[in-house]
Every structure is written in C-alpha cells, then in structure tokens.
Amino acid sequence: MHQSDKTKRLCLIGSTGSIGTQTLDIVRSHPDRYAVSALCAGSNVNRLIEQALEFGPAVAVIADESKYARLKEGLAGSGIEARAGAQAVADAGARADVDMVVNATVGYSGLAPTIAAIRAGKDIALANKETLVVAGDLVRRLLAESRSRLFPIDSEHSAIAQCLAGEEPGSVRRLIITASGGPFRTWTAEQLRTATVADALRHPNWSMGAKITIDSATMMNKAFEIIEAHYLFNIPAERITPVVHPQSIVHSMVEFVDGAVKAQLGIPDMRLPIAYALGECTRLEGASQPLTLPQIVNLTFAHPDTELFPCLTFAQKALERGGNAACVVNAANEIANQAFRDGRIPFCDIYTVTAETLEREPYIAAPDYHDYVGSNMSARRCASEIVSRIAAAR
Ligand code: NDP
Ligand code: MG
Question: Which pTM value belongs to this model?
Fold first, then answer.
C-alpha cells in the first residue's frame, strides 16, 4: 500500500454489502488517499476474508460470532487480527489507527457503531440512515459535544449538502427530496395486493441491498430519508417535500428564501456520494461518469400518492410524536420487511404491521440510549406477534 501522512484510514462497517463494496472500489482506485484499518461484515465470512487479504486491514470483524473460527482460519498467517460480535464491530471504529468510520451496515445494527465512533471523536461517513431514524435526537446531541463530523452518503442528502455548500443556513425555505417511486410507481392498489418479492426487488434505477430495495418499493425509504434530512440539516418535517422523479437524475433540491432552487444532477451511481462523503464534502475526479445532455431532456416530477404508499406518512407521524416513535416505526418495519421477503405476509401488510406496532407500543417522550435499546426490542416483539397473526390467518 502507498500510505502517506495524507492517507485517510478507514473503518468500513458493512464491507460486503452494496455500499461497502462500492466504497472499496474507491479505495482500490485511490490507494494514495485511502487505506483500510478495519473491515466489518455481518455474516458473509468468505467475502470478508477475500477483502481482508486484498486490502490488508489491521483487523477484520464478523458480527455473526458463529463464523469466527472460519474467519480466524481464513486469515491465518496474514497478520490480520480476526474478531467477532457486535461489540467488536463498535470497537473497530474507535481504534487509534482509524480516521473515519464508514457506516454501511443495514438496519438498527448501525446505531451502536455510530455512537461508539462519535464518543471516540471519529468522523463518520453515514450510509446507515436507520441510525438517524432510530435515535436522531440522541445522535445530534452527542455530535454537538464531540469533535466528530457526520457526512451523509445517502444520495439525496449528499445532493442537499452539495446544494447547501456556501449558503447561509437561514436562507433555506425548504428541502425537496426526490424519489424514484420504486418498481410499483404505476401499479394500482389491486395489483399491489398481489405484489411478489421478485416484483418488489426489481428496482428501476438503483442496485442496492434487499432491505432498502423493499423499503423503496413501499416508500418507507423516503419516509426515513425525510427523518434523516430533518436531523442532518435541522429543518422541520413540514419544510421537507418529497417529489416523485422516476428518472433519478435530480438527486434532490433546495429552495431558498428568494425563490431560487438549486439541484444536484448526475447519473444514478452511489460512488459519487460515497466519494463526496469520504472527501469531507470535496470532489474526487472521475468518481462517476458525467451526464450527457440527451439524458436530461425528459425530467418529470409528480406528487407522491400517499394512499397507494401509506408508509410515506410515517415521517410526519413519527416526527410529530417525537420521542421513541421513529425507533418503533424502524423496528416494526425491519420485522415486516423481512417477513415479506420470507413470504410470510403480503406486501401491503408491511404498512399495517408497522402502523399497528406504532399504536400499541408505549410512548417514551425523552428516551436515552437504553430506552432506545429497550424500545427497539419491544417493538420487534410486538411486530413479530402481528406478523404471526397475519401469517396464521392466510
Ligand atoms: P446490503 O444489504 O447490501 O449490505 C449490508 C452490509 O451490512 C453487509 O456488508 C452486511 O454483511 C453488513 N451487516 C449486516 N449486519 C451487520 C452487523 N450486525 N454488523 C456489521 N455489519 C453488518 O445493504 P446496502 O449496502 O444496500 O445498505 C447499507 C445501508 O446503506 C443501509 O442503511 C441503506 O439504507 C443505506 N443506503 C444504501 C444505498 C445503496 O445504494 N445500497 C443508498 C443509500 C443508503 P453480510 O452481507 O456479510 O451479512
Ligand atoms: Mg437515498
């Protein structure tokens, strides 16, 4: 490796996933700028071993402890330390040889590593939006007391950050978050009732992990992105407008008090926002292919249909209630999303499971970290019961 004083040393959490592998593409192309000190994955131990042998981190961590022996065997003689378990994942980001934590794990598992990184004063490039959905208030408080900075990877939030560069914070009137509309944008309510997992996994513009692809199909992903934008940019939900833009060329927009609207455009390629976050909001030459003009003649924008995609309404509901409400929505959605992928519940019941869980779970007005942990567990139990009831009645 061509390490120098300027090389940024990364801890990559979720290295075997969609964002993780694209992050490693950037590291591979820029060994002068980036090196990897720690790689962490969930359970794909063979892929993790391959990556570790290629990138030579000091430590490789597998969250699934049952895979530890295989990891240790695969790394034998390499000098790379093998570790396992959730605590080891969180510890990896706090290491002295880490400058930035790239958090690209999926779901609730992203919260603890984000908090550990903030406590250790590390910068964070955040793909794991669930971190801010679950505990946005807490994360914002901890960031205010820490020297760590948070750089969004999510394409919409990267676009907004790019539009806000050089602008006065007080000059923003609203954020306009674009949504592709997912694979079911043109479907009827009748068709949605029989949507299959294969249908839902067929995203028109982006190739992503299974969980976020289903969240895009229900538009829960857009609800999460509104919550994420609220915490990242400190804008109330009523000034964050989702708009359906099927071409995914305009990645999001900001409207200013004088009526000006700034947009960031590009082909759908996550390597651009990943590189922008790794570079602390600076541009990396050649991060993605440029747009060609004929690609942008046909840009369309429409209001989302919240009757067809009621999950979108969880953003407003959760932010209005505050407290642990968004944590409950996230937990219920994780259970319902997985249950749909397992063929246990129909597509439309992802909404009903989440809505019922939100009504049933106790409200906590000012949760601390342990309250979030407890609320997440309790909401998952509640959602699992509802799933079992629906599955048994089918
Ligand atoms: P993937 O499912 O493709 O990847 C998830 C990664 O997380 C895998 O490496 C997985 O490991 C790892 N992982 C799972 N559980 C744990 C755990 N407990 N500890 C450590 N690592 C774990 O997801 P994506 O890459 O698509 O998405 C990651 C995050 O980025 C999500 O929050 C998503 O919403 C967000 N995001 C993704 C975008 C995309 O284009 N993909 C765009 C915008 C945001 P393994 O495979 O080994 O089990
Ligand atoms: Mg996004």
Answer: 0.98
